[in-house]
Amino acid sequence: MWRTRSAGQATSTALVVLVFRVLSHISLSASSKFGAWPGILEERVKPLWCVYDNRVDERPWRFQPRDVPTAQCTAVVYAYLGLSPGGRNLTSYKPDFDFGPEGLRAVSALKRRHHHRPRLRALLAVGGPDMDSRLFAEPVEGVEGARSALMANAEQWLRVLGFDGLLVHINRPESFTTSDYTINEFVFAFYEYLKKRGKFFSLILPPEEDRRSTYFSPYSYAQCVFERSPVF
Predict the structure, then answer these.
(1) Class of domain 7-228
(2) What is the pTM of this model?
(3) From first to last of its 232 residues, what are the pLDDT tens digits of the chain?
């Protein structure tokens, strides 16, 4: 049975599709620059990552996970979770939304509903521009087991909620470190930990060239598939 939509609903859906197409194009443009590097990309298909932001309920045009144009995506990203004080655990800053009917589980379920994209990944992003990046300090520096605790906790979130991998977005590394050495160790350790457990890991780089070159060396992001995008 077909259901008719109001003009407002149709316009909203069209805008959603357009937004996701734009975000995907930005991600593709950013990543294609690095596509020739051997050993970095796990897939031959150019990545198109569609971002589902959990601040969607704060915006005038509401859309739901089912509005994500998964036919055009290689991954759908749920952004963002945060970190607890000390950085040892992932945490939700919006639990009513994240654990509600349009939240985490609805996004991870997209890969099961769309059988025409068997390679579609559901990824969970942590950090971002709204989180204090200093919460990453202890796990990045390996203080008193903080790194191993965070890795184990993140893997549990991924497994329980049905996500395929984790995206780490340290938006302001300068707030807690002066070099890329400790971040390199953190990235490589996290990548290896999740890879052994069948999970994907990616690092999201800041859009500013000076912060990328100062705090993130090619050593760290050559260890995993990564995405550089001003969307995040």
Answers:
(1) alpha beta
(2) 0.75
(3) 333 334 444 333 333 333 333 343 333 333 333 332 233 334 456 778 899 999 888 878 778 898 888 888 889 999 999 999 999 999 999 999 999 999 999 999 998 776 655 678 999 999 998 999 999 999 999 888 999 999 999 999 999 999 999 999 998 888 988 776 788 889 889 999 999 999 999 888 777 777 777 777 665 555 454 444 333 3
Tokens of 9: 């609903």
Phi–psi pair at 152, nearest 5 degrees: -65, -40
Give the start-to-end residue ranges of the domains of the chain: 7-228
